[in-house]
Amino acid sequence: MRHRYFLRVLVGALCALLLVGCSSADSGGRTSADTSVSASSAPAWAKGFGTVAEASLPAEARQTLRLIDAGGPFPYAKDGANFGNYERILPRHKRGYYREYTVRTPRERDRGARRIVTGRGGEFFYTDDHYDTFKAVLR
């Protein structure tokens, strides 16, 4: 009798956990905690992307944004280089439209996977998985 009760409680808890997990994910697999601003208040260039407020970015990403705003100096030789958008995740533009900047990753010996990509139209995108996904940075 006790085992049946325990099994029912366990199954109920697992179902509840599953329902909560499914309801918090958007179509891109990002959780609602990742989006800090509603889609209706996001700029047109951010349409179709998850968004993140600048204040919600890791401290190292905010530092990179400050360096971009100041025009450098940048700690990595490739900072400010053309971003080719070969993955075709960002909107298509002519070559040279996007620039990429390294976001330092603590305990990484190389550049790591985190980047800020900027567009000539004032767009800012953040990736923490080396261009597999992007979030529009709302400033």
UniProtKB/TrEMBL annotation:
Residues 1-25 form the signal peptide. It holds the Pfam family Ribonuclease. It comes from the Bacteria. Keywords: Hydrolase, Nuclease, Signal. InterPro entries: N1-like, Ribonuclease/ribotoxin. The keyword Heme does not apply. GO terms for molecular function: hydrolase activity; RNA binding; RNA endonuclease activity. PROSITE patterns: PROKAR_LIPOPROTEIN (PS51257). This is Ribonuclease N. It comes from Streptomyces mesophilus.
